[in-house]
């Protein structure tokens, strides 16, 4: 368990931060950007949790813990014995939950605009931020080793958040459908 007795350390005042392996990186480094995007996705999920309850709330709480694991995974470059890594089983769990939620939804006939209920809007915002975290992870993986399961987890997470938004939108009844060109003036 982590024990923090002092919140500020002053070690980052020069624009660097420490990683699990003891190395220091610029706070603008691609690895730190990816970690920050995961943190932002986690924060957006925290906001979404204010609007949901039941199974989805319990699953989101577990996902928040997974995202801390994912941040630790990203903060541990290379091979470090005992490193906390996202596992393929965590990705499979998201897939099983997506399938279970999706089973009660009607098939999509249009793209869905982010909205409907307040809860769905919060989940869609978290989804968009999770996609950004995924893009940051992919960018990092373009020049450094990244756990493939961590990237897969971020990809599935945005899918999970999309389907959960449909569920809290009264199982899709309150989904706002995209009407291509539907707001254009006819003049």
Q: Descriptors for this entry?
A:
187 residues; single chain; 4 strands; two-stranded antiparallel sheet; 5 helices; mainly alpha; Hypothetical Protein Ta1238, Chain: A
- Spatial order of strands in the largest sheet: 1-2
The number of domains is 1
Order of helices and strands: EEHHHEHHE
The CATH topology is what? Hypothetical Protein Ta1238, Chain: A
CATH architecture: Up-down Bundle
Structural category: mainly alpha
- Strand-residue fraction? 5-15%
What general outline do the C-alpha atoms trace? elongated
Main sheet properties:
2 strands, antiparallel
CA-CA gap between termini: 65 Å
Mean pLDDT: 93
Continuous helix count:
5
**Number of beta-strand segments:** 4
As a percent range, the share of helical residues equals 40-55%
The unreliable regions are none
CATH class: Mainly Alpha
Q: State the fourth-level CATH superfamily.
A: Cobalamin adenosyltransferase-like
Task: Tell me the radius of gyration.
Answer: 19 Å
């Amino acid at each position: 368990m982590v024990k923090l007795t002092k919140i500020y350390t002053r070690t980052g005042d020069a624009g660097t931060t420490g990683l699990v392996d003891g190395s220091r990186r610029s706070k603008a480094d691609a690895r730190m950007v990816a970690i920050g995007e995961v943190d932002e996705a986690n924060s957006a999920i925290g906001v979404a949790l204010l609007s949901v309850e039941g199974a989805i709330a319990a699953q989101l709480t577990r996902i928040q813990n997974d995202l801390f694991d994912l941040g630790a995974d990203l903060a541990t470059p290379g091979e470090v014995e005992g490193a906390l890594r996202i596992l393929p089983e965590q990705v499979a769990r998201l897939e099983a939950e997506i399938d279970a939620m999706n089973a009660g939804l009607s098939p999509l006939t249009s793209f869905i605009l982010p909205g409907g209920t307040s809860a769905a809007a919060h989940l869609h915002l978290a989804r968009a931020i999770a996609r950004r975290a995924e893009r940051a992870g992919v960018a990092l993986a373009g020049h450094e080793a990244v756990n493939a399961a961590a990237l897969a987890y971020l990809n599935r997470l945005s899918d999970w958040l999309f389907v959960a938004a449909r569920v809290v939108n009264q199982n899709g009844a309150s989904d706002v459908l995209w009407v291509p060109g539907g707001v254009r003036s006819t003049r």
